[in-house]
Amino acid sequence: MLLGGEPLPIRPDAVPVMDGPNRQRLALIDLDDGRVARPADELDIAPQLLRWSPDSRRVLVWARRPGLD
């Protein structure tokens, strides 16, 4: 799942490429035991670029360090 984070700063010199006004953080939930993993908590996630593998055992995530284009 994606969790909303802190607001993104507005940069007048850059074109926004994220989906909303807040940072997006990735959380993976194990459906067997309810454990939550946040493997890339320091990165901004692009939700429109998440892709699951055909067997749903892996997910491809596009992310960037905060403040980078």
* Secondary structural class: mainly beta
Gyration radius (Cα, Å) is 13 Å
Ranges where pLDDT stays below 50 over 5 or more residues in a row are none
Task: Provide a count of the helices.
Answer: 0
Mean of all residue-level pLDDT scores: 81
Beta-strand residue percentage: 25-35%
Give the biggest beta sheet: 2 strands, antiparallel
The helical percent reads under 10%
- Please tell me what the overall shape is: elongated
H and E order: EEEEEEEE
| Order of strands, widest sheet | 1-2
Number of strands: 8
Distance between the termini: 23 Å
Q: How many domains in all?
A: 1
Architecture overview:
The chain has one domain (2-62). The radius of gyration is 13 Å and the shape is elongated. The mean pLDDT is 81. The chain is an all-beta fold and 69 residues long. The chain contains no helices and 8 strands. Strand 6 (51-52) and strand 7 form a beta hairpin.
Quick structural gist:
The chain is built from no helices and eight strands.
Give the helices and strands, then pairings.
Blueprint: E1 2-7, E2 22-26, E3 28-29, E4 36-37, E5 44-45, E6 51-52, E7 59-60, E8 63-64
Antiparallel strand pairs: 1-2, 3-4, 5-8, 6-7
